[in-house]
Amino acid sequence: MKTTRLIIVAVGGQGNLLAAKVLGEAALAANVPVGMSEIHGMAQRGGVVESALVFGDAKSTIISDGEADVLLGFEPCETLRALNKCSAGTRVITNLSPLPPFTVAIGRGAYPPPEQACDMIRAKTASLIAFDAMALAREAGNVLSLNMVLVGALIQTDTLPVSADAVRDTIASKTKAAFVDTNLKAFELGFAAAATG
Q1: Is the separation of the CB atoms in 23 and 56 below 8 Å?
Q2: Which of 11, 21, 94, 111 lies 20 to 30 angstroms, CA to CA, from 147?
Q3: What number of CA atoms fall less than 13 Å from residue 100's CA on the CB side?
Q4: CB neighbours of 154 closer than 8 A, spacing ≥ 6?
Q5: Pairing of strands 48-55, 4-11
Q6: What is the end-to-end Cα distance of the chain in Å, rounded?
Q7: In the β-sheet with 91-95, what is the strand arrangement from edge to edge?
Q8: How much is the pLDDT for 100?
Q9: What is the pLDDT of residues 65-118, one digit of tens each?
Q10: CA distance 16 to 66
Q11: Of 155, 156, 154, 136, nearest to 146 (Cα)?
């Protein structure tokens, strides 16, 4: 089986770890070999959270610079920070809704405009799907479903050896019962957004 390397980056609290768990569980349910690792950083203080998932036959879950086949970014600046993991063949999906760091909030840092971030990503990678995933999470009924919007967009690209139905089944069985309907709606909104964009 071909190896596919996925990096997911987010700010603490955006649901990166649940997104990685859903994708990993869906792969296992479909008998797809998968390995996963996480870097939590200062997640509880709004810091970066990074998950690495390797689908297929691989000896390690470490994804070195230039090795990612897919980069999924929950926040535009975090997507930019992870560009070193990308190559000219990498596909990138990113949320465009910013979550500026503390330094920007107190006036000690600058936040790049979304267009500039997109230009930088396009210059280094094979393709980019960029949209306001936060707006779709709100439409689904809960801003916390941002992660499922982005998982839907990722699955639409058909870059992982995991089917949309396997992910839907995993969302239904592995996420909290109170959020299943919202999460499934968010997944479908993201899936549709990536098809058009």
Answers
A1: no
A2: 111
A3: 13
A4: 6, 23, 70, 72, 93, 160, 190, 194
A5: antiparallel
A6: 29
A7: 34-39, 48-55, 4-11, 70-73, 91-95, 127-131
A8: 74
A9: 999 999 999 999 899 999 999 999 999 999 999 887 666 677 777 888 888 999
A10: 21
A11: 136
Amino acid at 150: L
Check: CATH 2.20.25.10 for 4-196?
no
Write out pLDDT tens, residues 18-70. Answer: 999 999 999 999 999 999 998 866 545 567 789 999 999 888 999 999 999 99
pTM for the predicted model, two decimal places: 0.93
User: Three-state SS for 51?
Assistant: strand
Tokens describing residue 126: 């094979």
Residue at token pair 């939590």: 40
How far is 159 from 157, CA to CA, in rounded Å?
5
Sign of CA dihedral 144, 150, 156, 159: negative
C-alpha separations of 88 from 83, 96, 131 in Å: 11, 21, 21
**What is the DSSP-derived secondary structure letter of residue 46?**
T
Q: Where are the domains of the chain?
A: 4-196
Q: Which amino acid is at 94?
A: T
Nearest Cα to Cα of residue 184 among 144, 152, 155: 152
pLDDT score of 175: 95
